[in-house]
Each structure stands twice: as structure tokens, then as C-alpha cells.
């Protein structure tokens, strides 16, 4: 799970907690809009934060260097394909942009087969970042069945 320049500490804390729940690693691409030790991050992550596999990188290039050659999926409300169109694998990387501006065009090609969105009705512009990340992580788990029953 990758958060590209996240801005809201509570979202990051909630996403971190979900990562712990499914055994995923959380990557933070800087700059972030807060410090990871802020009380809002800790409060949202609760006492699970100590179990989180987390790594911070200074920029996008540093992240891609560390995670290449894995498959990357990019999430945006503007993507033309949905998560139902994807077949996920164990080592896939899920990339989410900042809450206010999403992913930059230099990273996201909204028509690419690896650009995905969570389907919603036309009445909702977008879902909360932590909600979307949770849906994606659990759809991944459903597909790969890597959690014990």
C-alpha cells in the first residue's frame, strides 16, 4: 500500500491499521502533510501502529526503485476501469494520491489498464481515502485468499 504525499493524518492512521489487519506494508512517499508521530496518526492507528510494517521514501523515484519490478495499480476517481476489472496477485502495489489532488499526471494515466477506481453512483464524487484503501485491500484479500479463516 502506497500513500503518495498524504495530507490527513487520520486517514493515514486508519490505513495503517487496515494494513496491519491484512499483513500489508505501508509506504509513505514524501512530502507528507504531517509527521508520522502526530497524535492524530497514533489515535487513528490505535495500539496497532507498533505492528505496522511501514517505510518512508523521499520521493516517487526512490519508491519505484525499491519496489520494481512489481506490478503497480494506481487509484483515482478518474480511472476508466474499476477494481472489478482487475485480477490481483500477492505482491501487487496499490498507489493512492493525496486527499486533495490525487495522483499527478506524471504518475497516473487514467486510461491505462492498471489505473483503477472504486465504482460509485453518480451522486458521490469520491470516497474517503481510508475507505477506498480498505475496500481495495479487502478485494485483494478476497482474490488471493491470503488471510486465514
UniProtKB/TrEMBL annotation:
S-adenosyl-L-methionine binds at residues 97, 118, 126. It is an enzyme of class 2 (transferase). Its EC number is 2.1.1.207. Its main location: cytoplasm. Pfam families: SpoU_methylase. GO terms for cellular component: cytoplasm. The keyword Ligase does not apply. The keyword Transferase applies. Keywords: Cytoplasm, Methyltransferase, S-adenosyl-L-methionine, Transferase, tRNA processing. One of its GO terms (biological process) is wobble position ribose methylation. It catalyses: 5-carboxymethylaminomethyluridine(34) in tRNA(Leu) + S-adenosyl-L-methionine = 5-carboxymethylaminomethyl-2'-O-methyluridine(34) in tRNA(Leu) + S-adenosyl-L-homocysteine + H(+); cytidine(34) in tRNA + S-adenosyl-L-methionine = 2'-O-methylcytidine(34) in tRNA + S-adenosyl-L-homocysteine + H(+). Residues 2-138 form the tRNA/rRNA methyltransferase SpoU type domain. It is found in: Cytoplasm. GO terms for molecular function: RNA binding; tRNA (5-carboxymethylaminomethyluridine(34)-2'-O)-methyltransferase activity; tRNA (cytidine(34)-2'-O)-methyltransferase activity. Gene3D superfamilies: 3.40.1280.10. Could methylate the ribose at the nucleotide 34 wobble position in tRNA. PANTHER family: TRNA (CYTIDINE(34)-2'-O)-METHYLTRANSFERASE. Belongs to the class IV-like SAM-binding methyltransferase superfamily. RNA methyltransferase TrmH family. TrmL subfamily. This is Putative tRNA (cytidine(34)-2'-O)-methyltransferase.
Amino acid at each position: 500500500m502506497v500513500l503518495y504525499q498524504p495530507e490527513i493524518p487520520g486517514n493515514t492512521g486508519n490505513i495503517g491499521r487496515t494494513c496491519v489487519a491484512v499483513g500489508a506494508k505501508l509506504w509513505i512517499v514524501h512530502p507528507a502533510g504531517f509527521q508520522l508521530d502526530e497524535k492524530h496518526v497514533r489515535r487513528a492507528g490505535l495500539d496497532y501502529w507498533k505492528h505496522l510494517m511501514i517505510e518512508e521514501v523521499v520521493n516517487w523515484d526512490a519508491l519505484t526503485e525499491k519496489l520494481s519490478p512489481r506490478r503497480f495499480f494506481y487509484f483515482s476517481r478518474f480511472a476508466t476501469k474499476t477494481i472489478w476489472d482487475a485480477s490481483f496477485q500477492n505482491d501487487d502495489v496499490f498507489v493512492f494520491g493525496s486527499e486533495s489532488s490525487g495522483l499527478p499526471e506524471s504518475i497516473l494515466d487514467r486510461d491505462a489498464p492498471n489505473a483503477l477506481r472504486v465504482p460509485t453512483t453518480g451522486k458521490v464524487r469520491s470516497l474517503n481515502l481510508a475507505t477506498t484503501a480498505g475496500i481495495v485491500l479487502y478485494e485483494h484479500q478476497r482474490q488471493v485468499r491470503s488471510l486465514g479463516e
